[in-house]
Amino acid sequence: xxxxxxxxxxxxxxxxxxxxxxxxxxxxxxxxxxxxxxxxxxxxxxxxxxxxxxxxxxxxxxxxxxxxxxxxxxxxxxxxxxxxxxxxxxxxxxxxxxxxxxxxxxxxxxxxxxxxxxxxxxxxxxxxxxxxxxxxxxxxxxxxxxxxxxxxxxxxxxxxxxxxxxxxxxxxxxxxxxxxxxxxxxxxxxxxxxxxxxxxxxxxxxxxxxxxxxxxxxxxxxxxxxxxxxxxxxxxxxxxxxxxxxxxxxxxxxxxxxxxxxxxxxxxxxxxxxxxxxxxxxxxxxxxxxxxxxxxxxxxxxxxxxxxxxxxx
Length: 313
Description:
Layout: E1 4-6, E2 23-28, H1 39-46, E3 60-64, H2 68-77, E4 82-89, E5 93-94, H3 96-105, E6 108-116, E7 120-123, E8 134-137, H4 139-144, H5 146-150, E9 156-159, H6 163-173, E10 178-182, H7 186-190, E11 193-196, E12 206-213, H8 218-221, E13 229-235, H9 242-252, E14 256-264, E15 272-279, H10 283-293, E16 298-306
Parallel strand pairs: 8-9, 8-10
Antiparallel strand pairs: 1-3, 2-3, 2-4, 4-5, 4-12, 6-12, 7-10, 7-11, 13-15, 13-16, 14-15
């Protein structure tokens, strides 16, 4: 899917469906007013009914990117850009490459959102069930709707670059007999007809998104003293008990470990970078805990401090 810019001046009452369910970036004069959970950007991107649009969205420009790398390239080229990318899914697991992109980019995480992923099947308005011979979508979405597809073996399954992009292509090209699997919010955007909603196999499917920006703008976008979650990355000496020492100190300072992910360090056999998320109630105790583990770690970097995001319904 080619890079596209949608609605440079989005009216407050408008909803913009998520064109790609995994990555996008945004920029605008008023984007500095974004709250810590990233809801204003999310509401533009996913059209979630529990996130009402705000007048400050008028100056936000949504930039849909074709790769995760492109999100970070947009940020590098323009410091006003705020990026957003998926980091993990409750079914597919972690998106490991995005951890490396975050660390290498120097971006600061300022928020997160846990989005409920629900898929619908849609077609051109003049088509009906009996007309559908081919269904298009991203491979991950197709996998998540496997049971539904197994119940309709006559439909040819064709993989595409993204979910809503398949709906856009069907609409733009007038592909009769084709259907797309994507978010229901894509239907009004592309003039499609929803045949069935909620066709995913597992109804407890959530994707966690991180919102991030140029570090020089981070404090304009969130009040650091109000944060209660942090993401860190560090390496450890290849010694017995090195990780357990760090975890014990974090526990002593009442820091709750919510995720730990290890990635091998290229060129250093059996050595790893550790990416951790932790929550806390007292920001001062949190900073004391970080100071305490600093001598035990190598290359420790705080990727971001933000408000713990809640799951959408």
